[in-house]
Every structure is written in C-alpha cells, then in structure tokens.
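Hi D.,

Good news: the full-assembly prediction came through. Inputs first.
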Amino acid sequence: KNQVEQSPQSLIILEGKNCTLQCNYTVSPFSNLRWYKQDTGRGPVSLTIMTFSENTKSNGRYTATLDADTKQSSLHITASQLSDSASYICVVSGGNNRLAFGKGNQVVVIP
Amino acid sequence: EAGVAQSPRYKIIEKRQSVAFWCNPISGHATLYWYQQILGQGPKLLIQFQNNGVVDDSQLPKDRFSAERLKGVDSTLKIQPAKLEDSAVYLCASSEGLAGPQETQYFGPGTRLLVL
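Then the structure:
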C-alpha cells in the first residue's frame, strides 16, 4: 500500500473557482511534507514545505495545511487560473531519510 | 541561476536496445537523484548520489540499469537492454547539500522514453 494517498485523482474546475486537494499519509516518523506542482512535460516544482510544528503555509494563491496528528494535509487553490492546470504531488519525508511520493492530483482549469 | 538540464528530451527505442540519459545538475549541488515516473504515478527514486558516491540505489534494477557520476557533477543513466515496461519519464533532480530528502530538490524537465 502506498504510504501517501491523494484525492481526488483528478478534477475539473472553472477558472476563478477555488479547490482543495487532499493528502493522507502513513509515513512515520514524520519529518516534513511538501507539495509540488508538475506542469505537463516539466519536472515538479516545490510549492510549500511544512514541518511537524507548522500547520499552514502559503505561497501566493496556494495554501497548504498540515494536521500531523491525523496525518493529513490539504492544498487549497484560491481563484484558480488556467495556469494552475497541472498535477499536484504530495511528498512526505520520513525518518528513513527517504521521500514517499503520492500519485498526484490532476487539476484541469477550464475557462 | 540555470536549472537542472537533461537530454535528450524524448527518446523512442525498440525493446532490447540500449539507451542513455544525461543530467547536468545546478552548479554546486552536491546531491543528485534519478527518478522514474510512469504515467499517472508519482516519481520513484532509482538512485541517489552525494558528490560522486552512491547513497541509495536500492530500487535500481541493477540487471539492466546503471548510473554514474564520475566527477561529482553531471551524471548518466543507462538502460541495457530496455523492456516495454521501462517506458516512462526519467527525471533528474539535485539538491544543494548533503542532508538528502530534508532539502528542496530541483527537478529537470525529464526525458520521456518510449520503448516499442
């Protein structure tokens, strides 16, 4: 079973609307959690990083939350733009010094 | 600052052929990673170098895959012979220091491989 589960697998939203992506993980011990944005045909780019003591982090219109007790994170996109169309990957770093990658949330923003 | 460079961007080969990918990390970055990303999946680590030494190659199929980073700068990943299931995007990433996954990784654009 994958240590990082993301939902929904894919979603389509109208330009200007908000959306929230979910990430549940079982990695333990926990070190940090990152959200990456991967545009089609490009490598992933880091959006946010949160450690155990942080429960929210913003990067422009992207806001990530972390609940380390329930091992859940979310990425909220505010006022979506066409350029937000991408795959959003949740990546968790654990005590074994290895990264666990989710399969990604595929977001399509339509005009 | 120049990003991680990879070449070629695309490659189509027949099964049982050989193929090599090249990666030039961000200047001064000590750690280099090769990932395999199958369509619809997250990246899977193949090998991690710190300078020119291998830190983790536990998920590298060593019967057909090899990688080197001889001078601690650029790196090559080779597949010989290729199988159909090797069709994927091969991502190279680098990070500045030696703290491994604790650091931000910067990814290249990837090499998209199709094995026919």
